[in-house]
Amino acid sequence: MTSKFDRHRRLRSSAAMRSLVRENHVRVEDLIYPLFVVEGQNIKEQIPSMPGVYHFSLDRLAEEMKEIAAAGIKSVLMFGVPEHKDACGSEAYNDQAITQQAIRQIKEAYPEMIVIADTCLCQYTDHGHCGVLHEGQVVNDETLKLLAQTAVSQAKAGADIIAPSNMMDGFVIAIREGLDEAGFAHIPIMSYAVKYASAFYGPFRDAAHSTPQSGDRKSYQMDPANAREGLLEAESDIKEGADFLIVKPGLAFMDMVLRLRENFHVPIVAYNVSAEYSMVKAAAANGWIDEEQIVMETLVGFKRAGADLIITYHAKDVAKWLAR
């Protein structure tokens, strides 16, 4: 019989054949692992809504970093949770604050590890918003000054990359100018360019103790219904000096990963956020899904959409699976 149709299955006939023609791959070098450091002593405390993710005090951070390095993970994203909070988030730009201490400690022990500093005020303010409040509203330009100070302080501590997540207008150029003036022109900016006002951040807010005390963040984070607006945000950030672009959340907004890949030539980062992580963990704990296959399929999806890098709480597990 003469074939009148295409034979696509020829390239799916065996595991070796499928591996030979596979288009996208997840590598351990693609993974960025978030860390949460807190003040105090002898603290390794699991975050209730994020199984397997912990708060670490500085004296327990070394054991976690040893495990991360042994897994082959090359990059971490730092979040600090201070004891003292005030209206202007002063611990964010205090050179001796918890985040800066953690950055120094990691760089001293693992100088080749890429340390990315989340640059925002929300976990440092007593009101939980990402900037300075005036009559209940976040004041954009006054906030920019504090964000620039925070970035400089983090760079002085040894951060390799500054990752501003606050979504203020002009935050990239304010930080770029602050870094350049302070002698850190070589430090790149990984911008949370497309960050939606999403319900997928719930478990993270438990981890960072950053839930707003009043109102919400919809006046500065993006409407989840909008896509063209995300391209405008990303274009502004590129013009202002961003070296990377982040899409957050990643899984729920994978279309934006693809749109950014098609329109910009800088590295694209997908943030596989806390609720995306916790939902998988909960389903796996109930025996409803194969955790490894679900996670790997998700991360391959990020790569297929165009992500170069993936921020994920699954990173340690993925590194072990890849090594196996």
Strand portion, in percent? Answer: 15-25%
Low-confidence stretches: none
- Work out the radius of gyration: 20 Å
- The rough form would be described as globular
| Number of extended strands | 12
Compressed to H and E, one letter per element, the order equals HEEEHEHEEEHEHEHHEHEHHEH
Our count of helices gives 11
- Mean of the pLDDT scores? 92
Distance between the termini: 44 Å
Descriptive labels:
324 residues, alpha/beta, 10-stranded mixed sheet, two-stranded antiparallel ribbon, 11 helices, 12 strands
Map the helices and strands.
Blueprint: H1 15-20, E1 31-38, E2 44-46, E3 54-57, H2 58-70, E4 75-81, H3 98-109, E5 114-119, E6 132-134, E7 137-139, H4 140-157, E8 161-164, H5 171-181, E9 190-195, H6 202-208, H7 228-240, E10 244-248, H8 254-263, E11 268-272, H9 274-285, H10 291-305, E12 309-312, H11 315-323
Parallel strand pairs: 1-3, 1-4, 1-12, 4-5, 5-8, 9-10, 10-11, 11-12
Antiparallel strand pairs: 2-3, 6-7
Helix pairs in contact: 2-3, 3-4, 4-5, 8-10
